[in-house]
Amino acid sequence: MTTRQLLLVPLLAFALFLGGCRQQGSQTAWNTNWESAAEEAKLSGKPILALFTRPDVSPWSIRLQEEILETDQFRAWADQRVVLLSLDFSGQPNGAEPPPALQQLAQKYNVVGYPTVIFADAEGKKLGSLRYEKGGPGPWIAHADEVLAGKQQAPLPWIQAWDEASKESKATGKPILMDFTGSDWCGWCIKLK
Is the per-residue pLDDT at 25 higher than 90? Predict the structure, then answer.
């Protein structure tokens, strides 16, 4: 090796080190289980942003990820405001069901489509929810801030069982409005919601 090459080796190593540090510092860390996210939320005093996603079958999950969650604007906001939790329901090996812990969280928060973002405190109390929205990170973050400020409009109390809806209809004299949906891939269903 020449003297010039010998001088370049430490400089190249130092540049790679700095590049790695910059990359680590710019990436927002996502928890992958509730317990670690709840512990971080308790220590930081920040709410949890739980992303229920399924990019293997939901193009909206992919769009949320690419257009919002992977942007520098979202990362900067998330570092200051929330603890991130990613709950990926993508296809399990050999067609198995998702782990029971994931299924229980989806039931607890009434997740019926992907992606769904639930905001919760460290104790698991739901603060609000969001889904994919067009327009990039700016409008999405503005709506997230409304949720965290408690300004989100309360969702309609949809009844999930026919017998229960029928009973309430008879008691109140109101007709039943049925919504045959729950799809996470139907763009018109999402727009209607």
Answer: no
Q: Which residue has the tokens 């018109």?
A: 188
Query: What is d(CA 172, CA 90) in angstroms, rounded to the nearest whole number?
Result: 42
Q: Which residue has the higher pLDDT, 15 or 109?
A: 109
| 5: number of Cβ within 10 Å | 8
| pTM score of the predicted model | 0.67
Sheet holding 48-53, edge to edge: 83-88, 48-53, 116-120, 126-130
Helix (H) / strand (E) containing 73: helix 72-81
The candidate with the shortest Cα–Cα distance to 151, out of 127, 117, 123, 134, is 127
- What's the angle, vertex CA 133, arms to CA 132 and CA 137, rounded to 5? 100
Q: Determine how β-strand 83-88 pairs with β-strand 116-120.
A: unpaired
What single DSSP character describes residue 170?
Answer: H
Asked whether the predicted pLDDT for residue 11 surpasses 90, the reply is no
- Give the dihedral sign, CA 147/150/152/154: positive
Distances 31 to 85, 86, 89 between C-alpha atoms, Å: 5, 6, 15
Residue count of the chain: 193
Residue type, 78: A
